């Protein structure tokens, strides 16, 4: 990607000290996949979906996070994630109450 050496080696100040560039790429790939814009036939292999081809033709390289997050597949994933989180919280509350008794 021809990033300057200082960006390649830039790390987050967290306890894990992850590399910023690699982490950002991983998050972008994940979001694109969740939005149905990338297909991953196997680990570390990505293919542009038909939807992504349409977006590339329309927006070129100006595909933003907001555009990715507005895709129906991404929105559906977020809804399912929220529902699961709510269910998990309810179970934890029940378990906590049972343990307290």
TL;DR?
With 101 residues, the protein is mainly α.
What is the H/E string? Answer: HHEEHHH
Mind summarizing the main beta sheet?
2 strands, antiparallel
Low-confidence stretches: none
Radius of gyration of CA atoms, rounded to a whole number: 19 Å
Summing up helix and strand content along with how strands pair, one would put the structural category as: mainly alpha
Terminus-to-terminus distance? 57 Å
Task: Walk across the major sheet and give the strand order.
Answer: 1-2
Shape: flat
Determine the strand fraction and express it as a percent band.
5-15%
- The percent range for helix content is 55-70%
User: How confident overall, as mean pLDDT?
Assistant: 88
The tally of strands reads: 2
Helix tally equals 5
Give the SSE layout.
Layout lengths: L4 H4 L11 H15 L3 E5 L2 E4 L1 H10 L5 H5 L2 H29 L1
Antiparallel strand pairs: 1-2
């Amino acid at each position: 990607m021809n990033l300057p050496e200082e960006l390649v080696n830039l790390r987050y100040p967290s306890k894990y000290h992850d590399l910023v560039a690699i982490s950002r790429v991983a998050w972008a790939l994940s979001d694109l996949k969740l939005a149905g814009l990338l297909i991953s036939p196997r680990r570390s292999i990505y293919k542009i979906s038909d939807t992504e081809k349409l977006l590339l033709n329309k927006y070129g390289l100006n595909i933003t996070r907001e555009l990715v997050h507005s895709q129906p597949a991404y929105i559906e994933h977020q809804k399912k994630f929220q529902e699961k989180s709510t269910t998990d919280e309810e179970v934890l509350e029940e378990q906590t109450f049972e343990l307290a008794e």
